[in-house]
Amino acid sequence: MSHANWTVYVLEGTIVFLILYKILSARAGKKLFIRRIPGLSAIDEAVGRATEMGRPMLYSTGLGGLDIVSLQSLSILSHIIKVAAKYRARIIVPTADALLYSIAEEAARDAYEAEGIGESFNPDDVRYLSGDQFAYASGVVGILNREKCSAAFYFGNFFAESLILAENGQHVGAIQVAGTPCITQIPFFIASCDYTIIGDEYYAASAYLSREPTLLGSLVGQDYSKAIIIAVILFGIFAVSAVAVSTVPSLETILLRFMGAFKG
Amino acid sequence: MIGFTNCLSTLFVPILGPMEYVYIAASIVIGIAFLFLLTKVPNKWRRPIIIGVTFVAGWFYFIEFIIPSSSEMASIRKETLVAERLVRQAANDVSVVETRVAAQEEARKNKKKTSITVSPAMCSQRTASADKDLSAALTHLDKIKSDLESAKPKADSRIESELKIADAFARDHHLTKDMVESDTYNGKSVIVNDKIKALMKRSNDITSANNSITLPFPKEGEKWEAGAITLINSAKSQLGNITQPGSNLTGILNKAADKIVEARTSVVSDNFLSRYKLPLATVNSVVGSFAFALGLFGLFSIHGKAIAKRKKGWYNSLAFFIAIATMTVLGFLDRYAAPHGSVYADFSHTAYRIVFEGGLTALQSTMFSLVAFYIVSAAYRAFRIRSVDAVIMMISAFLVMLSVVPVGMWMTSGLHGNLKFLKLENIGDWIMTLPNMAAQRGMQFGISVGGLAMALRIWLSLERGSYFDKQL
Fold this sequence. Notes:
The complex is a heterodimer of chains A (264) and B (472).
Chain A: H1 6-27, H2 38-53, E1 57-62, H3 68-86, E2 91-95, H4 98-114, E3 126-128, H5 133-147, E4 151-157, H6 161-171, E5 175-179, H7 186-192, E6 195-197, H8 201-210, H9 213-245, H10 249-260
Parallel strand pairs in A: 1-2, 1-4, 2-3, 4-5, 5-6
Chain B: H1 2-11, H2 18-40, H3 43-66, H4 71-109, H5 120-172, E1 182-185, E2 188-191, H6 194-214, H7 228-237, H8 249-266, H9 277-308, H10 314-337, H11 343-382, H12 388-403, H13 406-411, H14 424-459
Antiparallel strand pairs in B: 1-2
Helix pairs in contact in B: 4-5, 4-8, 5-6, 5-7, 6-8, 7-8, 9-10, 10-11, 12-14
């Protein structure tokens, strides 16, 4: 679909309204609950382990360019770097996109400055490796093996290289946490990593880690939106089934019109 | 304004010969100066600039999306929606009769009693309703056909006039074939630019949509599929035989509805803002190329320090410099240095191919091939029976694997009749298309809503992250 139709206006408008409403109510001081996500809780554990072992950590932003997925990855990176800076642990951030590289470098610098140790930031730890998929993969594998990383985080867009990275992380004994919205790569991460954040948990990460009211409100708004989508799906199932068995032409017409509204 | 545009066009005209190197050098100098200026912008200004640009760009894409497509195309899209609904309605009527006839025939063949009846009144009512819907759908399809037919010459005439402008520009600025992008239009090679490419795509899309609506049944040796009008006419003529066993009008009508959907998706849908999407993407690429320079500087810095300080593995850093120099020199030689057809051209092209295809591509394939080995080790860990979940996963994976290999199909090839659903290929297909697909789609919904919320927060600068470390 290139342009919105009335169904999109209504559905998207409702979702946007719910998210903004929940953000505003959270900022007004309403307490919101967020369930425990083991993969995200493991991040602090991984940073602590790296500190104890005195070995660096690796954070891969994946192959994506400067998009929503990568910006979310930077948000998580920012939190991890702050924790790492607090414990004076080293974290290496290889990137595959030049635009992302410059933003990641600034994010890392800001995180160190936020912890009051801006002088400890080493710009060489945020690296642009290559925009080529397998050149990037071999670069990350090289870092994992040379630096004997004690923890590896994979957050972003991943493709066929996901298993190469995660299996090498396993090989060097790193505790691994991965999160990606790329559905085809989730099984590989589940098989190779200690913790995997799946589906929309990826977008819940920054809210979970920072507990910012704005982000928590947005997360609750997302859950309400999903409830609406589930309701539409259930009604769609009912409509398709009813059309298949109905003997009342006028009801069929109404239901077919409803289903037609969701077509591009 | 026209003078300014001409001035800009002249500045960006492709050029060959010694001036080209001046242009390349000037671009590098301007790029470095631009980057230097950016780094000198104070933080208190930089963030509002970023947020402002994000907000304006976000508004552009938002408005472009919510404004409906141009009235001509919007009308075609609307007509296709109505026509599709009518055809699906007719398919549903036909399917009720055909399913009952098939069930009765099955019972007759197996000499079983059945409570399913096919009353003549119900048949005639359903057939009449389907016939009425199909006639209405044909009226809408005729309207779509005539709209598409009138849109085509308009699109083609715009291409012709743009081609003339591009041709005149190339002639005025003495551009040779090597300096411009070309494509084939009406069997001849023509100079194209982004605008012409977009117009050509629009024209092709109109043709595809028209084909989906109007193509006749293919004769022997022809490979296209019949269009919606042909399929509907064929179904209409067979409505009288609907009570005959083996009738498959439902399939024909569903195919016709699919063809209408195909036509709708083929139609280019744009509004007055859509034409600015491509130039904006170009601006994005230009900014991206500046960032690439930053990335390259970062790499030079890391590897330069490694060599200078003789760090462990410094020779790998040296290999990086040699590789980047070799690829750059050979790339430039292949593109610019040697005149075409000369011995030097052959040499530089061969050298470039040896390094690119013989070196880089082979290395990429090597890395990719490692995936096969890693799958085995990852699968071993994943399938170790540690919990109920792991057992379910292992059994499902085992069944799916068996379902796609010949030995798996052979193992259950003896199952027929009521036990046919237990064939491994059916079980594998069921796992992949029902539970697996349902889980994937469930996740996809969550991911999409999460992405929408994230985009909204960034657009409205509500996101807290290091790139927006405080809300404005």
